[in-house]
Design goal:
The chain has helices at residues 22-29, 38-54, 71-79, 89-97, 114-122, 133-146, 185-193, 216-236, 262-279, 293-296, 330-334, 423-427, and strands spanning 8-9, 15-17, 20-21, 33-37, 59-64, 83-86, 105-107, 127-130, 150-157, 179-180, 199-205, 242-244, 286-289, 300-312, 316-321, 340-342, 352-357, 366-373, 381-385, 405-410, 413-418. It is an alpha/beta fold and 438 residues long. The protein folds into two domains: 8-37 and 297-427, Lyase, Ornithine Decarboxylase, Chain A, domain 1 (Beta Barrel), CATH 2.40.37.10; 108-291, TIM Barrel (Alpha-Beta Barrel), CATH 3.20.20.10. Pyridoxal 5'-phosphate binds at residues 248, 290-293, 390.
């Protein structure tokens, strides 16, 4: 059994995280429950930051908070000297409410509204990552009206296809994100902003995909961006100060996954940028990266209570849990795979094969197909590993199921980070019918 971060099995055979018994957490907070290992998140953050320091390269490590957003995680990011990648007005508002330094916030998105952009200006965010021509015109109007400067990066699609699932590959030419680097759109965008009175172009941004296990794609993307920067320097005297190479660093979900250590990705990026800076006679830019999943993914564990069992003779045996696609849509959306353990029997042999079904009224609501687990019975606590990224953040109230609570654990302590929703929460925005017939 592969354990992550501070996970251990105690003398009672129970899974513990951060020195806290998961069975006690389930009793106190109920299930479904997301449990985050803060020590593991801190170690990952420091691993990225310290690698840049050791190699003497100026950098910003921005937590890509779409992976998991809430006030408490933003406060943790602040403690660890991370910057922040937000992709909506809601994430930006949450960050400001969390007291996150606005100068370390980078605002992304392919269809930012005027309201969201004005919020970014009013919040004095550190940078806006510009995604399209429509946004350029909005930015110019807002900056002119406010007579306020804003630092920007131009997001480009470098034509690099990462080795990943089609739905989470974003650096290829056919993408809703960014200006194409190869068909002239990036050049056109640059010309529209390079001499603007209020918009300060720092450099370029790209993101080639997610759950990536090799460095070749990052190196190739960096090469393409450095060549474009060189061309703009020669033609227009442009001085690039920031190169943002995005995120997408993979984690281990199952034994099929073979991620690299964070330091390996960082070193390869730095070496590529330094090499081309030398070849092209360019100043070394700051390197910004945006880890999200690799900071919080395997630091999160979902706890469920096992309920009904169903045996389909000669086909499979189902166990059902009290959550499902309402708190983890990834198996249904991406065919994502997970591993699990019966948390109150973690020291027993895994001898039974079950398909773990959720309680949602969808035949595709299966969290794990053919999971090898300890023998289970109703009332057992099932722990599903590596649900810290895109679990809670993509959760819904489908079937009017309340979203789970979220708990942080560290050094034997635990605290609620997000309250469990109630039925009252679910109907709080509903209005009674008032139209009169006839």
């Amino acid at each position: 059994m592969h354990l992550y971060g501070t996970q251990k099995v105690n003398e009672n055979g129970h899974l513990t995280i951060g020195g806290v018994d998961t069975i006690e957490l389930a009793k106190e907070y109920g299930t479904p429950l997301f449990v985050y290992d803060l020590q593991l998140i801190r170690e990952r953050a420091r691993g990225f930051i310290e690698t840049f320091h050791q190699l003497g390269v100026k950098a910003e490590v921005a937590y890509a908070s779409k992976a998991f957003s809430c006030i408490a995680i933003y406060q943790l990011a602040k403690e660890e000297n991370l910057s922040l990648d937000v992709v909506s007005g809601g994430e930006l508002y949450t960050a400001i409410q969390a007291g996150f330094p606005s100068e370390r916030i980078h605002f992304h998105g392919n269809n930012k509204s005027s309201f969201e952009l004005e919020l970014a200006f009013d919040s004095n965010v550190g940078c806006i990552v510009v995604d399209n021509f429509y946004e350029i015109e909005l930015l110019k109007e807002i900056a002119q009206a406010k007579q306020q400067s804003m630092r920007i990066l131009l997001r480009v699609t470098p034509g690099v296809e990462a080795h990943t699932h089609d739905f989470i590959t974003t650096g290829q030419a056919d993408s809703k994100f960014g200006f194409d680097l190869n068909n002239g759109q990036a050049d056109e965008a640059f010309l529209k902003v390079k001499d603007d009175e209020y918009l300060n172009v720092l450099g370029l941004h790209c993101h080639i995909g997610s759950q990536i296990f090799e460095t070749d794609g990052f190196s190739l993307a960096a090469e393409k961006l450095m060549n474009k920067i060189s061309a703009w320097k020669e033609a227009y005297g442009f001085h690039c100060t920031v190169l943002n190479l995005g995120g997408g660093f993979g984690i281990r979900y199952t034994e099929e996954d073979t991620p690299l250590e964070p330091q390996v990705y960082v070193k390869e990026m730095i070496e590529t940028v330094q090499s081309f800076a030398g070849k092209l006679n360019l100043s070394m830019p700051e390197i910004w990266i945006e880890p999200g999943r690799s900071l919080v993914g395997d630091a999160g564990t979902s706890l469920y209570t096992v309920g009904s069992h169903k045996t389909v003779p000669n086909i499979r045996e189902y166990i059902a849990v009290d959550g499902g696609m309402s708190d983890n849509i990834r198996p249904a959306l991406y065919e994502a795979k997970y591993e699990a353990v019966v948390a109150n029997k973690a020291n027993e042999d895994k001898s039974n094969t079950y398909t773990v079904a959720g309680k949602l009224c969808e035949s595709g609501d299966k969290l794990i197909v053919d999971a090898l687990l300890q023998p289970t019975e109703p009332g057992d606590i099932l722990a599903v590993f590596c649900t810290g990224a895109y679990g809670y953040s993509m959760a819904s109230n489908y079937n009017r199921i309340p979203r789970p609570a979220v708990v942080f654990v560290e050094e034997g302590q635990h605290q609620l980070a997000i309250n469990r929703e109630s039925y009252e929460n679910i109907i709080q925005n509903d209005l009674a019918l008032s139209l009169k017939r006839g």
